[in-house]
Amino acid sequence: MKKNSIYFGILVAVMLGVTAFATYGMLNTGREGEEYQVSVIVSNSSSDRWIAFREGLKQGAADNHIQLNIVSTVEFTGLSEECQIIRREFENGAKGVIVEPCSSQDEEGLLSGEVSEGAVIFVGTDVMPEGLHTVVMPDHYEVGSAIAGELLKDYEGRTEGLTVGILCGNQEQLSMQKRLSGFLDALEGTGIEVVWTAAEEGDGVRKLKSFQEEQPAEVLITLENDETELAVDYLLTEENSSCVLYGEGCSEKAVYYLDKGLIQGLIVPNEFHMGYLSMEEIAKQLLYGTSPAQNREIEFLTINKENLYDVESQKILFPIVQ
Amino acid sequence: MGRIREEWEKIITYINRYRKTYSIQVTISISFTVLSVCSMCFLGIMLYEQFVSRMERTAVESTGQLLGQTAINLEDYLRNMRRISDAMYYSVIKDKDLSVEGLDEEMNLLYEANKDNLISIACYTNDGELVAAAPVATEKQDVDIVGQQWFIDAVEQMENLHFSTPHVQNLFDDTSYRYYWVVSLSRAVELTESGNSALGVLLVDMNYSSIEQLLAKANTDNSREYVYLMDSEGEIIYHPKQKLIYTGLYEENNLEQVTHEDGSYEEEFQGEKRLITVKTISYTGWKLVSVVPMSSFDMGLEEMRYFVIMLVTVSLLAVMILNQLVSARIAKPLQKLNDSVKEWEEGNLNPAIYVGGSMEVEHLGRTLRSTVEQIRQLMQDIVVEQEEKRKSELDALQSQINPHFLYNTLDSIVWMIEGGRCDDAVFMITQLASLFRISLSRGKTVISVEDEIRHARNYMNIQKIRYKNLFRVTFDVDSEILSCCTVKLVVQPLLENAIYYGVECMDGDGEISVSGHRSGEDVYIEVRDNGLGMPEEEVAQLLKENNRAPRHGSGVGLLNVHNRIKLRFGPQYGLEIESVPDEGTTVRIHLPYIPFTPETQEWLESGKKQI
Question: Do B247 and A273 touch (CB under 8 A)?
Answer without folding.
Answer: yes
